[in-house]
Specification:
By secondary structure, this protein is an alpha+beta fold. Helix content is 42%, strand content 18%. A hairpin with a 2-residue loop joins strand 4 and strand 5.
Length: 148
């Protein structure tokens, strides 16, 4: 099973803009399930904006459907933020999980592959019950110690 979502710009991004996006990501007020938007130096040295966010906790006592519900919620928020940066800064993003490309964000919009990727996570999450704000809150509260 995938555990994290990796994202990078398809072209170099000025260092001041990379720092600005990192700062903006750090300011997002959200109860992240596993990990928020995290930027790192480009591993290939190409000066791209490059990041990775763990989506799943993979706790033994945690039902896969509940882990998937929370991963879907956070992946959706991450992709929404990448769409926003794509719109405001003209960045095209490439996203991957487990080494496989799962889609792109260009001109402020996710492609159909990325939409399908999110739908697959949500499909797993909804094997037990629909993903609702109440269900997400219950799961988050049940594992409130996950960051401790």
């Amino acid at each position: 099973m995938i555990t994290s979502l990796t994202y990078w710009s398809n072209a170099p991004v000025a260092s001041d803009l990379r720092e600005q996006m990192k700062h903006e990501a750090d300011q997002i007020s959200h109860d992240w399930w596993a990990e928020g938007i995290s930027f790192f130096p480009d591993p290939d040295g190409l000066n791209r904006a490059y990041g990775d966010s763990q989506l799943f906790l993979l706790y033994e006592e945690l039902e896969a459907e509940d882990d998937s519900a929370m991963a879907w919620r956070d992946a959706s928020l991450i992709i929404n933020q990448l769409e926003s940066w794509s719109t405001s800064h003209g960045i095209t993003w490439v996203l991957s999980c487990a080494g496989d490309t799962v889609g792109t964000v260009a001109n402020g919009h996710r492609d159909s592959f990325l939409a399908d990727f999110l739908a697959e996570i949500k499909e797993i999450a909804e094997l037990v019950s629909p993903v609702t704000p109440e269900r997400l809150s219950t799961i988050s509260n049940e594992y409130a110690s996950r960051h401790g």
